[in-house]
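Please predict the structure of the following assembly.
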Amino acid sequence: MLNHLKDLSNLIGVSGDENKVREYIIENIKDKCEYKIDNLGNIIAFKKGKNKIEKKIMFAAHMDEVGMIVNYINDDGTLKISPVGGLYVEVVIGRSVIVSKNNMKGVIGSKAVHNLSSEEKKSSPKFDNLYVDIGSQSKEETEKYINLGDTVAFMPNFMEFGDDKIKSKALDDRIGCAIMLDLISDELEYDAYFAFTVQEELGLRGARTSTYDIEPDFAIVLETTTASDIPNVSEEKVVCKLGKGAVVSYMDRSTIYDKELYSLAFEISKSNNILCQTKTAVVGGNDSGAIHISRKGVRTIAISAPSRYLHSPASVVKKSDLIACENLAKMLFLRIANI
Amino acid sequence: MNLKNTLMELLSINAVSGSEESAYNYLTNILRNYTTSIETKNGNIIAHFGNRTADKPHVLVDAHIDQIGMICTYIMEDGFIKFSNIGGLDLRIMLAQQVIIHGKEDVYGVISSVPPHLSSGKSNEVKEISELYIDTGYKKEELEKIVSLGDKISFYSDAVELLNDRIASKSLDNRSSVASVLYMISLLGEENIDCSFSVLFSSQEEIGERGAKIACFEIEPDFAIAVDVTFAKTADEDPYKCGNMDGGPMIGVSPSLSREISEKLINICKKQSIPYQIEVMNGLTGTNADQFSISKCGVKTCTCSIPLKYMHTPVEVVSIKDIENTSKLLVEFLKEV
């Protein structure tokens, strides 16, 4: 899973432009299961298990990452950008980026600190005032390499560091994709569907169409969720912690999760020594929001890896938590099949 | 000497002000090809060229070797590091920046802070340095085996090549100038020139031009050129405060500089068809030149600056052409002085 995660995190796949991620996944599943690509670009895969079951169980993870999109080329050759997905301007300035489709390297700089007024020093600039510099000297030169609508992502930077930690862009949600690749590689006990979805960061859009198509009875969403276990955050606002295992939430801003599946997750965690924690606040959301109300409703649970600094160029996760997520997903799948 | 490769190698060195020793090896190895007289002390690297005699002028060519960064001031209970700035940091760009803590070994980290939705402050308010911490991924006990208070911290970002021979990286302030001076030495090669000169790669410029002050005291030059970087025009900078990328070296003109040297440099550029720009300052220059000009009985001093975008960020940008033209100007100056 970690090898897949490294490869996947270093790929560029801003919402609506998931092609490189999709190709990588197809390359890794094509001999192992049936699959198709739907009209939005979701990968819908089906893998036969050793045993056939009546109910349909679906795993889901999104392929897209937050980023930016080029919406104008300035006369001096720099690119105007706007955010795609929830992106704070604070984590964008002073970074190097990569612009599709020609993989142009660029930087997002800003007026030198020496020349800022004391007012300017104290408040973050607006997205409207930022621009990407690819080294071009004119609009004409830029137009040779860049088209309006090209997406902009943080520079690939996957790295293992500290005590069992990983930092990278796009861990949200290449972690879920990497776990699903593992599951597809395994011999499965029962039939299973897999949705690698697009446009989650724009409002759970790929999940909507792929779930409609698969028409599952149960869904296990594999995701990441915000951990605020950092200094000066009061205990109740920490939400979840690195090193405390998979996160299974009773409710977030998109979904009230299936109560039986929620209890089942903790029961499995206890009897199998898989670390599992819940969220201490109702925050965030994921593809579950679209999945659980698809058609006549889908019994849904999300298993998330706790992650610091989500939607930044350097999110941080702990490897042992990722393994807990994968193990919990496998066990939960077996139990759901027998509900 | 391949200028771009030399620059890239210089960018891979981390020498935050006060820890310039990390650059000693790389620089002395290069300098040794051209002179036997090399000193390293107080963070400064000084190399002497030519026979110094009373009847010939002695020139000091300087580029500071240090870079801005941070310093570890406290290790928190949960293994996060509190830090202070070394040099002028832009606090607007700090969140989720990746850094290296130069402990007993290099430790990688991410700059952390209470996220906007959990803090009481306004959402677009920039965090004070006291509100920032470095997440090293270690527990306190493990971290303390590797990291000590006072360890230096630098930004972690790989250099990136952009279009038109432009490089984006941390520390281009002032490795661009160091590369330019090294390239100047290689261009001069065995050439006989009428003056003797010393090259100074000076320490602690970013915290008040301290290495330059003490080195100039010992070198006692007749003329001094401070090679540094200056603001290049970007989409959000005022044009009257900036030079242009690819416009050539910016020759300083200021009440605090020697007008004689400024004019000499300008005339050389005209004569040799080296592109140049004039950087007018209305007092001090904010460079090592401020120290050279008032060293001992005074030294005739000028600045020669390479235009650079996004100063003091991990994505500063320079043009290789400007670095090269700066080297050419310095070579011609040494020949003519």
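Chain B has eight helices and 17 strands. The two ends of chain B are 25 Å apart (CA to CA).
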